[in-house]
């Protein structure tokens, strides 16, 4: 049976932006962003060396489009320049489709239209490739954009209006018509934007791919660490019950030292850059230590040496040791893999980092993304639940306090903003169509994504051929591009028999990859998916 050997974590969480204020997670996100850029660079040159029927390399077009700073106030004449890329190499003029790649909480590059499975599909379907960097990230920001007076124009609603305006710009530039079918793509937060663009502007895009899209805003994302705990005990990815127990025991030992005031031992054993001074630093310290395990689950295998299997090997098998010593070795290994001499555990320095208004055109926008969590999404990873394997010092209040310290946003305002976001977009039940949601079960992204609820119908099993294709896709290109292999290989779908309708008779098509190779999909979306993956989507 395919499910007996299919890895349970088919698609781990792609969220660069799940919110956690500790320093280590910021280092992990920046490293991962650089690694993904490098992977795209390598993939592009492999494409050049081994072309698949391409006639030759065409330099992508980079440009900057003038956008209103505030789409919703005509009296505000301020503008900013938004960066975009265009790849015309595969486009069949004049009626070929348009693939829109949506940027998120980090900078984009020209490889957004040169590398990836969406580029392979563009070649196959003769599509025009365009990508748009998110406002306030990368180079798409004014010089004073990160100040308190200007950052208020950063929101998903403004970003969707940017996409609509950009759609008009491209349509006019290439004299496009309704015959040019638009498909938008995104993963993680851009996956949400992809779904929401189809939801709010259905006349502009015919279909959307939303991978690991956290469409449901959530203030206290305590379930995040429940999934981390489950993954640490999952033998399919190198975890074990013993590993999870030792992680819990190790954090209890750390908490005991913190409560006793013996911080000097912790500073030495875990290579703290600064002395731990007060409860805020203690929370920062345990948050940084937990980040190593969160990052291993969240980005399993994407950062060298930081994956569940390796961490659990250190905790359980390397030599007779205490759980505390295991945590010390895990921290040491993490520092070596990241090239760190010490770990910054100063809460005040973290506040200073988030307060910085210096623009970084080539990385992850930490200040910008934390602002969006305070004003729209929440996503705060906490450990106040008994099932969390880490320290209870990782609290909701400690993370909400950053909204107040950095942006002067009250805790009550954050809660109201999260509620508004869910009401505005429909949370995990958006009333739209032609949206494909691809989510993993072991990663925590599925907890915030659109899924078929229990009782909506029975799942169907993947064939061995399809499961094998998925595993080969993972080993060949990495988890980040798995979503494209999913729909690229869905020609297997006609082999399946769907016995029940999953979910309501209305709503968006929903594809959910789950552990043991399970698929959930509404019956009414089957026709759409068969048309999409046979190439028929691009003919209305």
TrEMBL record:
Alphabetic keyword roster: Glycoprotein, Hydrolase, Protease, Signal
Span of the signal peptide: 1-21
One Gene Ontology cellular component: lysosome
GO biological process, one term: proteolysis
InterPro entries in UniProt: AB_hydrolase_fold (IPR029058), Peptidase_S28 (IPR008758), Ser_carbopepase_S28_SKS (IPR042269)
Entry's Gene Ontology molecular function annotations: dipeptidyl-peptidase activity; serine-type exopeptidase activity
Family named by the database record: Belongs to the peptidase S28 family.
Name of the protein described by the UniProt record: Thymus-specific serine protease
């Amino acid at each position: 049976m395919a499910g007996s050997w299919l890895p349970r974590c088919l698609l781990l969480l792609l969220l660069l932006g799940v919110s956690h204020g500790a320093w280590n997670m910021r280092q992990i996100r920046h490293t991962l962003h650089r690694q993904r850029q490098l992977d795209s660079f390598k993939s592009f040159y492999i494409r050049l060396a081994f072309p698949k029927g391409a006639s030759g390399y065409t330099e992508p077009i980079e440009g900057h489009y003038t956008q209103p700073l505030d789409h919703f106030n005509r009296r505000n004449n301020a503008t900013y320049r938004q960066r975009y890329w265009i790849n015309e190499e595969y486009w069949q003029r004049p009626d070929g489709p348009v693939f829109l790649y949506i940027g998120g909480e980090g900078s984009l590059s020209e490889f957004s239209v040169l590398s990836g499975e969406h580029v392979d599909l563009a070649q196959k379907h003769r599509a025009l490739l365009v990508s748009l960097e998110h406002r306030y990230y990368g180079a798409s920001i004014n010089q004073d954009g990160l100040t308190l007076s200007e950052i208020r124009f950063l929101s998903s609603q403004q970003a969707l209006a940017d996409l609509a305006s950009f759609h008009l710009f491209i349509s006019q530039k290439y004299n496009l018509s309704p015959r040019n079918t638009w498909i938008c793509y995104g993963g993680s937060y851009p996956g949400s934007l992809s779904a929401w663009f189809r939801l709010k502007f259905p006349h502009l895009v015919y279909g959307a791919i939303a991978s690991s899209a956290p469409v449901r805003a959530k203030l206290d994302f305590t379930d995040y660490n429940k999934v981390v705990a489950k993954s640490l005990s999952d033998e399919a990815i190198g975890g074990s019950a013993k590993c999870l127990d030792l992680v819990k025991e190790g954090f209890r030992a750390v908490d005991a030292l913190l409560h006793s005031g013996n911080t000097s031992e912790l500073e030495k054993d875990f290579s703290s850059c600064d002395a731990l001074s007060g409860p805020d630093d203690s929370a920062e310290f345990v948050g940084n230590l937990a980040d190593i395990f969160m990052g291993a689950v969240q980005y399993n295998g994407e950062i060298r040496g930081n994956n569940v299997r390796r961490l659990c090997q250190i905790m359980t098998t390397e030599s007779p040791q205490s759980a505390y010593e295991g945590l010390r070795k895990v921290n040491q290994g993490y520092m070596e893999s990241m090239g760190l001499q010490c770990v910054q555990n100063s809460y005040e320095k973290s506040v200073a980092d988030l307060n910085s208004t210096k623009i970084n055109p080539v990385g992850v926008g930490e200040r910008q993304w934390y602002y969006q969590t305070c004003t729209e999404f929440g996503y705060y990873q906490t450990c106040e639940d008994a099932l969390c394997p880490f320290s209870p010092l990782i609290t909701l209040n400690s993370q909400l306090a950053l909204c107040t310290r950095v942006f002067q946003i009250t805790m009550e305002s954050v809660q109201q903003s999260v509620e508004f976001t869910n009401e505005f977009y429909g949370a995990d039940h958006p009333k739209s169509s032609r949206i494909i949601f691809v989510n993993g079960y072991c990663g925590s992204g599925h907890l915030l994504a659109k899924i078929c609820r229990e009782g909506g119908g029975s799942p169907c099993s993947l064939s061995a051929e399809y499961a094998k294709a998925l595993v080969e896709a993972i080993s060949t290109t990495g988890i980040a591009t798995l979503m494209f292999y999913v729909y690229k290989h869905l020609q297997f779908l006609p082999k399946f028999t769907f016995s029940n309708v999953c979910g309501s008779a209305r709503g968006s098509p929903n594809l959910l990859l789950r552990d043991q190779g399970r698929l959930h999909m509404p019956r009414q979306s089957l026709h759409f998916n068969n048309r999409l993956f046979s190439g028929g989507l691009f003919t209305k």
